[in-house]
Amino acid sequence: MLKLLTSSFLLVFVILIFFGFVPREEKLPGDFSVYKLLEAFGDTPLPHKPNFSIEGTSAERGREIVINGMSDLAGKKSRRQSKHFVCTSCHNIEREDPDLAHPSPEARLKYVSEHDMPFLQGSALYGIINRRSFYNGDYDKKYGDLVKPTRHNLREAIQLCAIECSQGRKLKDFELESILAYFWTIDLKLDDLILSEQERQLIEHSFNTGEKKREAMDILKSKFMDYSPATFLAPPEDRKTGDGLIGDASNGSLIYKYSCQHCHFDNRYSFLLLDNERLTFQYLLHKAGTYDPHSIYQVIRYGTPPKGGKEAYMPQYTKEKMSDQQMADLRAYIEAEAKGESQM
Ligand code: HEC
Ligand code: HEC
Predict the structure, then answer these.
(1) Which of 26, 205, 260, 329 has the most CB within a 10 Å radius?
(2) Ligand 1 atom with the shortest distance to the CA of 123
(3) Is the CB of 172 under 6 A from ligand 2?
(4) Quick check: CB of 123 below 6 Å from ligand 1?
């Protein structure tokens, strides 16, 4: 009898091992915060945590302000932050780059069009709290000294955008803290990073045991960029030929639909209606080769000037938000539509 018992125990044990039921390391869920892991591995804590002691601060209010431009406090609706825009006019609030370590406008366009999201001039606000510097690169050329206090301060970066990009009023304290609180809910999660099975196991092992923290931290940090680079480009020297780049019209149609029409369709943010009529494309084609403010090359690379908050304006696209090749693709699409040749 005893023999039978031991052997059946043994059998169960063998089966357990066989199916991998030996006590293993605790697995981390895919939606585990990247910043929590980094802090556990000894990274410098992120400085921009929301201050919940300011009355009215909540992530839900923050979300409303970002999406609708206002929220209410004690039953009173606040004044709209901007007459012209909301934050999501120019920024996505979901992830938009398939590979956060190597973002490119080409990969992004493919990703957003597959997910029916817009392709925009502003960087995604998803994962913004995981970044450590703001208005990088050439943005000091545009905003000068205004950029200095924002470079390492997310609160200042948000206020600058509320006033300069959104052309609106300064955010109140509870609004600013609420936006931050919301941003902390759309931080990067473990599954957003492209990790090999081995890397993931090392991170889990390190989190469970405290061993190899430095290694785990370095792996995590190599999987996303903690700032958005920004390079300003000039329009092509020769606007007639677009400097000779050959465009791909089908790609151009995605730019037109997911970027230009996000703001210009149904006169959403602009009086200039960019619909799908042949006349519209003929107009754009006619202007493209000129130095007119309505040339696509002009508006894409320089934007339009904000007129002291009185009117909406168009932000420029940096190299990181639209490549020269993509501009040529857009031109090819406009040309095909203007000539009635397009299959799209
Ligand atoms: C009219 C377009 C527009 C609107 C509206 C707008 N932004 Fe921006 N924002 C930009 C552009 C363009 C940049 C600079 C490029 C970038 O995001 O990297 C920027 C930059 C930022 C940055 C710094 C990003 C970084 O990584 O450097 C933050 C934070 C930000 N905006 C928050 C907001 C918030 C919050 C709102 C709403 C209150 C808002 N923005 C409204 C266009 C806009
Ligand atoms: C974030 C919103 C937004 C996006 C995206 C956008 N525009 Fe604009 N655009 C505007 C606003 C606002 C204006 C200026 C206000 C107006 O004229 O109504 C403008 C102005 C223009 C003008 C006229 C310039 C002038 O001086 O009046 C052209 C041409 C134009 N846009 C083309 C485009 C094209 C092409 C794209 C896509 C590559 C595009 N826009 C993407 C918001 C946007």
Answers:
(1) 329
(2) 17
(3) no
(4) yes
